[in-house]
């Protein structure tokens, strides 16, 4: 199998994919996005059975998936899935439509309406960018004053969707959340991400990864989410609410998995490549 | 290994022969450098800072 790998930075994950693909006897064709261009007049790219999307930048990931799909390549994940994941408004709309349990979520297009709906959800509330990552600018507002300030900060960023206010309830989860991975039609591995010092449980913000035993309910939930969002390789973030149980918080279309491999001793890259091979051969 | 020049301090930087464009190297001068393909040969430039849309 010839596997294209489109990327903009070589992180631990990309090195691992390259190494495992080589071990399994596959050929990797690296596509460094900054060395890549597309012209409708002349375009030639090597033969590839599949392309793995690994760009860190959402814009580059979406653009290269779109272009490569247009050239009839199979891309994991495809551009539609990336939009469904990276734009939280889209993610939550889709999950809500299909009755997947999510934190109470509201979207407002003016500060007045954002304050009104936050009051209905009840403080503290969370405000986060519609498109954001690694927990950046995710803030907890304890009252109207805080929320008003956070919205003003958001207005003066360069975020493309800075005038859309994405508000969620603050879920009283334990000091942790859950990250589970869907690969193909399987849910092989996951982690708890625990942070006793910061309510934001992104590992990028210092949360500690611990192995997770995936129960049947979590597994079913992950597969339902995958069926709604699309894609082949997803990282799904789940909260444990003391009363309502599992709530899906986010879905990641270019997931990082270094800590998952480390604490579970589970080879995500090898598993992914084997599943991709099965899919290609079907 | 191949010896390249740091574009910031001019010092030598040892890079693996099989390094791929996009690899990030921390140089002793403090610069974070990105390997890139400069007309068929490996070279170094200052790495991009973390973008607003980076990450998961």
Automatic annotation (TrEMBL), chain A:
Occurrences of domain ATP-grasp (ranges): 92-277
UniProt name for this protein: Lysine biosynthesis protein LysX
Family: Belongs to the RimK family. LysX subfamily.
Known pathway: Amino-acid biosynthesis
GO molecular function: ATP binding; coenzyme F420-2 alpha-glutamyl ligase activity; metal ion binding
PROSITE patterns: ATP_GRASP (PS50975)
InterPro entries per record: ATP-grasp (IPR011761), ATP-grasp_RimK-type (IPR013651), ATP_grasp_subdomain_1 (IPR013815), LysX/ArgX_preATP_grasp (IPR054562), LysX_arch (IPR011870), PreATP-grasp_dom_sf (IPR016185), Rp_bS6_RimK/Lys_biosynth_LsyX (IPR004666)
Cofactor requirements of the protein: Mg(2+)
Organism: Candidatus Acidianus copahuensis
UniProt record, GO biological process: lysine biosynthetic process
Cellular component terms per the entry's GO annotation: cytoplasm
Keyword terms, alphabetized: Amino-acid biosynthesis, ATP-binding, Ligase, Magnesium, Metal-binding, Nucleotide-binding
ATP-binding listed as a keyword: yes
Superkingdom as given in the UniProt entry: Archaea
PANTHER family listed in its UniProt record: COENZYME GAMMA-F420-2:ALPHA-L-GLUTAMATE LIGASE, RIBOSOMAL PROTEIN S6 MODIFICATION PROTEIN
Key word Electron transport present: no
TrEMBL record, chain B:
Coiled-coil region list: none
Classification via InterPro entries: LysW
One Pfam family matching this protein: Zn_ribbon_LysW
Alphabetized Gene3D superfamilies for the sequence: 2.20.28.160
CDD domains per record: LysW
Source taxon at top rank: Archaea
NCBIfam families reported for this sequence: carrier_LysW_Arch
Name of the protein in question: Sulfonate ABC transporter
Originating species: Candidatus Acidianus copahuensis
Classification lineage: Archaea, Thermoproteota, Thermoprotei, Sulfolobales, Sulfolobaceae
